[in-house]
Amino acid sequence: MANFTNPIVSLADMEAVTMPQTDGMARDYWQGGANELITLKENSSAFDYYKIRARCMRNVENVDMTPRKPLFGKKYSIPVGVAPSAFHQMAHSDGEVGTARACKSQNWAMGLSSYSNRSYQEVKDAGEDSAVFFQLYVFKKRNITEDLVRRVEKAGYKALALTVDTPYLGRRYSEIRNKFCLPSYLGYGNFPEKEAPDFEAAVGGMTGSTNNEIDPSICWEETIPWLRSITNMEIWVKGVVTEEDTELAIQAGVDGIWVSNHGGRQLDSGLATIDALPEVVKAAGGRVPVHVDGGIRRGGDVFKALALGADFVWLGRPVLWGLKYDGQAGVEKMMGIVTEDFKSTMALAGCHSVDEINPKTLVRIGPSISKL
Ligand SMILES: Cc1cc2nc3c(=O)[nH]c(=O)nc-3n(C[C@H](O)[C@H](O)[C@H](O)COP(=O)(O)O)c2cc1C
Ligand SMILES: CCCCC(=O)C(=O)O
């Protein structure tokens, strides 16, 4: 463990003590976002427009945090999971295996990035029932994607989370300036050496390189049916933020929708995800589950996302802070803080179970959202 002496009682504390001790290239990669960071910042700050209407005198001696619905038939401890993020070995030598062990020990769900350092098989072995989502990028070389999909299905992953907000990498100024590259001693765990996609070539967005391996031509009509033809896993889409795309996704037959703007790393000036969530939930109309990520840092944020209709929420950067803090134990510590904070919010709001967290428990103040 690095030398952290401050008591850590919130995720903000964990961020504050770990980031100054993180190498600049990694710190910029984790903390950065697209362009002027407007969406990155608003993902978190927009939660403050929502206020909780607390009920009292409701005997909250027992509070049950189990999710409203099982996920892939399993009851996790809490409707909060670990979102897929790339290159966990930049935070700790255990990498995604440490993260998966923490998920298994705390009974949390986990998504694994296509760009993990450790392989999907190592992560499945470590995380077992917790390692459920495999986040998919579709590459121009479709045979590489197809082979990967077949391998992760065989390993026991339950669903693909097809990332739909990244036809090109966003323009992340800090990565462009410092020419982000994966340290040479780390690898791409999911690809045989000769097929490893060229992440560095993607840095900079459309102008970064003509050799971007991610296929920017993916679309509803072609890509979802193609994935269906090669896998029996569930197919979810990660990165939907509008009612229009919710409808198209459902028409295309997806099994679930994950509202996300990639933690503000892709399109800058997009809506904060907590503000995009209600229109997606309304358009989905209960036909498929809706999950959300982006800027969630407190138990109150989890509560608000559930109140607005999300079935499950996911954390990105806090997992990296936890890993940096102390590997598996650090991720477990981060999870403990979120769990305590969510439980406390539920009790103080007078909710015994997640089912009781509904739109009536919230009001929104401040600038309103209206379509033009
Ligand atoms: C360093 C980093 C790497 C990421 N890598 C991926 C990735 O490989 N695939 C993906 O779909 N999303 C990726 N994401 C986005 C996360 O899955 C998630 O949408 C986002 O981090 C949620 O926002 P938060 O960090 O504010 O919690 C990454 C995010 C970060 C911070
Ligand atoms: C090509 C993208 C890889 C990781 C990623 O999604 C991110 O850095 O946000």
UniProtKB/TrEMBL annotation:
<keyword id="KW-0560">Oxidoreductase</keyword>
<dbReference type="InterPro" id="IPR013785">
    <property type="entry name" value="Aldolase_TIM"/>
</dbReference>
<dbReference type="InterPro" id="IPR000262">
    <property type="entry name" value="FMN-dep_DH"/>
</dbReference>
<dbReference type="GO" id="GO:0010181">
    <property type="term" value="F:FMN binding"/>
</dbReference>
<keyword id="KW-0288">FMN</keyword>
<comment type="similarity">
    <text>Belongs to the FMN-dependent alpha-hydroxy acid dehydrogenase family.</text>
</comment>
<feature type="binding site">
    <location>
        <begin position="316"/>
        <end position="317"/>
    </location>
    <ligand>
        <name>FMN</name>
    </ligand>
</feature>
<feature type="domain" description="FMN hydroxy acid dehydrogenase">
    <location>
        <begin position="3"/>
        <end position="367"/>
    </location>
</feature>
<feature type="binding site">
    <location>
        <position position="238"/>
    </location>
    <ligand>
        <name>FMN</name>
    </ligand>
</feature>
<dbReference type="InterPro" id="IPR012133">
    <property type="entry name" value="Alpha-hydoxy_acid_DH_FMN"/>
</dbReference>
<keyword id="KW-0285">Flavoprotein</keyword>
<protein>
    <recommendedName>
        <fullName>Oxidase FUB9</fullName>
    </recommendedName>
</protein>
<dbReference type="Pfam" id="PF01070">
    <property type="entry name" value="FMN_dh"/>
</dbReference>
<feature type="binding site">
    <location>
        <position position="260"/>
    </location>
    <ligand>
        <name>glyoxylate</name>
    </ligand>
</feature>
<dbReference type="GO" id="GO:0005737">
    <property type="term" value="C:cytoplasm"/>
</dbReference>
<dbReference type="InterPro" id="IPR008259">
    <property type="entry name" value="FMN_hydac_DH_AS"/>
</dbReference>
<feature type="binding site">
    <location>
        <begin position="84"/>
        <end position="86"/>
    </location>
    <ligand>
        <name>FMN</name>
    </ligand>
</feature>
<feature type="binding site">
    <location>
        <position position="262"/>
    </location>
    <ligand>
        <name>glyoxylate</name>
    </ligand>
</feature>
<feature type="binding site">
    <location>
        <begin position="293"/>
        <end position="297"/>
    </location>
    <ligand>
        <name>FMN</name>
    </ligand>
</feature>
<feature type="binding site">
    <location>
        <position position="137"/>
    </location>
    <ligand>
        <name>glyoxylate</name>
    </ligand>
</feature>
<feature type="binding site">
    <location>
        <position position="265"/>
    </location>
    <ligand>
        <name>glyoxylate</name>
    </ligand>
</feature>
<feature type="binding site">
    <location>
        <position position="113"/>
    </location>
    <ligand>
        <name>FMN</name>
    </ligand>
</feature>
<feature type="binding site">
    <location>
        <position position="163"/>
    </location>
    <ligand>
        <name>FMN</name>
    </ligand>
</feature>
<dbReference type="GO" id="GO:0016491">
    <property type="term" value="F:oxidoreductase activity"/>
</dbReference>
<feature type="binding site">
    <location>
        <position position="135"/>
    </location>
    <ligand>
        <name>FMN</name>
    </ligand>
</feature>
<feature type="active site" description="Proton acceptor">
    <location>
        <position position="262"/>
    </location>
</feature>
<feature type="binding site">
    <location>
        <position position="172"/>
    </location>
    <ligand>
        <name>glyoxylate</name>
    </ligand>
</feature>
<feature type="binding site">
    <location>
        <position position="29"/>
    </location>
    <ligand>
        <name>glyoxylate</name>
    </ligand>
</feature>
<dbReference type="InterPro" id="IPR037396">
    <property type="entry name" value="FMN_HAD"/>
</dbReference>
